[in-house]
Automatic annotation (TrEMBL):
This is Molybdopterin-guanine dinucleotide biosynthesis protein A. The lineage of its organism: Bacteria, Bacillati, Actinomycetota, Actinomycetes, Pseudonocardiales. One of its GO terms (molecular function) is nucleotidyltransferase activity. Transmembrane segments: none annotated. SUPFAM superfamilies: Nucleotide-diphospho-sugar transferases (SSF53448). It comes from the Bacteria. Keywords: Transferase.
């Protein structure tokens, strides 16, 4: 039996705990683009659903639940595992999984990530899946997380799921990895 594509997001996990090695360790989530911190942009795109932010606590304009992976610095899959453990929703819920350094994310980006299987990810203009711009069925995410999530890639963990790939519009996949990414 095929389910209908999901149109709403019930919750979100935002990964905001990276070490920003290419940025000399600066807190990327709080860097500003057009005067708005990156983490605030991501939270605005998600809207008023329950949000779990994985990383150190920072001042944000929305109510969020904070958590950390143990030990800190275990990589994105470990961060996702910690975030999912803090999500209090049924397994049928739809959850956005996002990086905190997305400069081009909007609510309309997330609205386009509809799916009929386990989830959907944005695909950049080079054809690469952007695993930290996705919307997923919570039960599928939880089932995919390995018992030892440390230092695993999201592609290796989520790539085997039934994923809808949605082409990105110009600018939607923009993230901040280096100082040059902040320049217009």
């Amino acid at each position: 039996m095929t389910s209908q594509p999901h149109q709403t997001i019930d919750g979100a996990v935002v990964l905001a705990g990276g070490q920003a090695r290419r940025m000399s360790g600066v807190d990327k989530a709080m860097l500003t683009v057009d005067g708005i911190p990156l983490l605030h942009r991501v939270l605005a795109a998600v809207g008023a659903v329950p949000v779990v932010v994985v990383g150190p606590e920072r001042p944000v304009p929305a109510a969020v639940r904070w958590t950390r992976e143990e030990p800190a610095g275990g990589g994105p899959v470990a961060g996702l595992a910690a975030g999912l453990a803090a999500v209090d929703l049924p397994s049928t819920a739809t959850v956005a999984v996002l990086a905190a350094d997305l400069a081009g994310i909007t609510s309309s980006t997330l609205a386009r990530l509809c799916f009929d299987g386990d989830g959907a990810v944005l695909v950049d203009e080079d054809g690469r899946e952007q695993w930290l711009i996705g919307v997923w069925r919570l039960g599928a995410l939880r089932a995919a997380i390995p018992a030892q999530p440390r230092d695993r890639s999201l592609r290796s963990v989520l790539g085997g799921l039934d994923v809808t790939r949605v082409p990105a519009r110009p600018g939607e996949c923009v993230d901040v990895d280096t100082p040059a990414d902040l320049r217009p």
